[in-house]
């Protein structure tokens, strides 16, 4: 007997535990475009900027192993480039941009933030620990100063 549901890929089985979004103040307004965001550490992002025909150009075996993935797991999944470009969300992912403040060019700049970086969530495992997945260039955030056309994934 054939199952009507397809098997989940290794990427789709990642366990997200988005602690930062649970413990820190989050702006949930969803208002598009660059703006001032008072009193929040993160702003939820309603939609990401999909890329046309994203493709994988490099993989880090050591970074993937931190997530409990192998290079083969990633290469076997036809949606990998969409997931890691931010064009499609992984199950459990909660896109947000991080707000921060600081000094630029010797002066206090006030509100800064991830203008083109999206927090996708924190992947957690008993064996590998907790790792934050981010995607660079996935669209405009409240902290954007310019628009990026390129996308790549960062693990922290």
Automatic annotation (TrEMBL):
Protein name (Swiss-Prot/TrEMBL): Selenoprotein O
Family: Belongs to the SELO family.
InterPro entries on file: SelO (IPR003846)
Organism: Ataeniobius toweri
Listed GO MF terms: nucleotidyltransferase activity
Entry keyword set: ATP-binding, Magnesium, Metal-binding, Nucleotide-binding, Nucleotidyltransferase, Transferase
Pfam (any one): SelO
Known cofactor(s): Mg(2+)
């Amino acid at each position: 007997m054939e199952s009507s549901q397809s098997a989940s890929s290794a990427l789709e089985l990642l366990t997200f535990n988005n602690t930062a979004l649970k413990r820190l103040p989050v702006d949930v307004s969803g208002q598009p475009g660059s703006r001032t965001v008072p009193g929040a550490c993160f702003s939820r992002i309603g939609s990401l900027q999909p890329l046309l025909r994203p493709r994988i150009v490099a993989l880090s075996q050591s970074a993937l192993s931190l997530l409990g993935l192998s290079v083969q797991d990633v290469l076997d999944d036809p949606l990998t480039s969409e997931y890691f470009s931010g064009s499609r969300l992984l199950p459990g992912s909660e896109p947000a941009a991080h707000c921060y403040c600081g000094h630029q060019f010797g002066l206090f700049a006030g509100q800064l933030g991830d203008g083109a970086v999206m927090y996708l969530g924190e992947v957690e495992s008993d064996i590998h620990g907790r790792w934050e997945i981010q995607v660079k260039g996935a669209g405009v955030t409240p902290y954007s100063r310019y628009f990026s056309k390129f996308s790549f994934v960062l693990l922290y």
